[in-house]
Amino acid sequence: MPTWGTWDEGPNDSKVTGIHASLFYDGGAGKVLIFHCRSYPMWSRVYDHETNEMNEANLEVPIWPLTPIEPSRIFCSGHCFMADGRLLVAGGEKDFPYPDYYFPSNEQQVRGQNYCFIFDPQNDPPWSIPVSSSVPHFMNDGRWYPSLTILKNGKILAMGGFSGDLNGVYKSTTNLVPEVYLDGIGWERVSETSNADMPPDLSYFYPAGNLIPKGANQGKVFFSTTQLYPNSNEPPSYTAGDTQLFDPAATRPDPFWQSLGGQRPTPTEHSNHILLPIRLGSSTSKVLVIGGLWYESVAMDRVDLIDLSDTTPDWTTIDPLTYPRFFHNSIILPDRKILVVGGEADGEPVLTSELLDTDTLTWDTVDIPEMVVSRRYHSAALLLPNGKILCTGGRVPDGGDVEDDTERRLSIFTPGYLLDGEQPKVYDPPTELTYDEDFSVTLDGTYPLDSIAFVKPMSVTHGYNSEQRYIELFFEPYGVEGTYKIKSPANSNIAPPGIYMLFVLKDVSESISGLSKIPSKAVFIKLYQS
Hints:
Strands 2, 3, 4, 5, 6 and 44 form a six-stranded antiparallel β-sheet that branches. A five-stranded mixed β-sheet has the order 41-49-48-43-45, with no helix packed on it. It has a four-stranded antiparallel β-sheet with strand order 1-39-38-37, with no helix packed on it. By secondary structure, it is mostly beta strands. Helix content is 0%, strand content 36%.
């Protein structure tokens, strides 16, 4: 069995634990923001993949303007890139104020914050509180563990998370009210009545929304993270929740929510959900749910598949994971394969990664070296512009803080395709594009190509990333040798407005082994609605 890839060390101390990680355009450099932000001061840091170093500056999240002052604790918040490439961070943990939150107790009131921040690396300072007429952009209620998803019109949909209200002593309630963020304006409820409220089927914990690109349900948002919920009988029994479609553009009498009815075999927490690559000539919109946690901490090996372009979507399964796991991360690579890294099972870390070929939906039989640092709960992993994978965060047994969130070593995985030949080089790309627009790039040779694709930069926490998206683009030779005319995505259901990474992939015949589609380094392009 061939060995595929290598693990290398990143900085030995990232200064802050990378529970949250987001890849930025940052003028084309592609740097990574990481933060924890549970204890004061609320610092974040930036990793530079080109130098393999952490920026020396501690970038502090500003204090939210309340009386009395509340800490800007964006720990376990939701985040999503806006259409202009800035990062919107919403919600977080709200309980005792500093310094008491160093010492959680049975009296702790677990709630969600209702504030938001914007991170823009082009500004100094990069963190800001969005305001209109001097009024901060409050959400209607708090959210702790929410999902944020960009819609086709560039608005950001917030769903789920713990509310800011308490339902009796020590109990928290789920924020059921969906709302959207409008840049420069603030938050507004999707509906002023309860007809848009999130159904009980969905988990409060990162319900995981994907904008559907094609088919009968395009433009709607699919939520895959379900839960068991009680009925009103005494004593109550519990029902497995349905997965749900949400239509953000619905108006009465049309419903906002549609239950898919076809349940997955069991709900699972701490799984990964991925929209499969959007291929040329295909009308499908398929989502995978990989692994997860179930009853009495049983790690799942199940991989479920659903085609949301169908009028009546239903679940099927593909071959399972070799290593059951939860708390893991799954990343779409430029060659359309999915790398599953890290996680936990039976109280032990899973150090062996797995590779899924999305062209065939089969697992590759390659020998991937074991991880050098375990990545369990509160870890993150994302694709870098050079085609490598950055892994951050996680827990260290007896690490010393409240939840042992002390893993500050970074790890870099170099996939096998980068060890199998020279990467193509891309010259003269555009910096901005509209939809369905022709553009051209020139390469450093006239070798055969497998494909050209847009890949959305990742913004990930807890293994959830609602934006992860791979879009294959039409291309053909154009003019002089080595130049290609390319067509941008047709519409914003396929590719919501924002920043994308353009990858060019050599055909497998150009690799040393004859097996690898070798990607270029990414160039960043802004896709906008004219």
